[in-house]
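Structure ticket #2291
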Amino acid sequence: MKRALDVMLSLIALALLSPVIATAAVAIGLESGRPVLFRQTRLGLRGREFAMYKFRSMVANAASIGPYHTAADDPRVTRVGRYLRRTSIDELPQLFNVLTGDMSLVGPRPDVPAQRAGYTDADWAERCSVRPGITGLAQALLRSDATAAQRLALDLRYAREHSLWLDCKIMLMTLARVSGKGSN
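Resolution: structure written out below.
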């Protein structure tokens, strides 16, 4: 049921948001050229690697000149990128990751491979027992203000308690957060 809901809602979102997606792609291209999408290896269900897509919100060579995470005033973030991140428009290409089955609309955010070392084997196995999501409990409750420990606790809580009802609550909380305070 969750997978069917993911596919249906992703298709609806892509149709409704296609003007926003096209505008973002054009704005990125005009400001900083190509590519407009950023592709990064992430770890998903059961720790399987997949290519996650986002709109590029940083300079083209950002990965080679800084860490995998960003700070509030990261100089690698472009002017258009700041807006895309604040509004979470940079995450919209992940709707295609949902359609391919690599991601869900709701679940723990997928980690980069380097982050695996920060988990115990038990925590990692539990966190990866569910498909990663575009949004999750940590993002809905704390957005970018969550510490690593808070994110882990909320990701594990989601893995233990996930349900369609919880997913609906998280999506509504995320929409409220995105329309309020943005992220990095």
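Closing remark: The chain has a mean pLDDT of 90.
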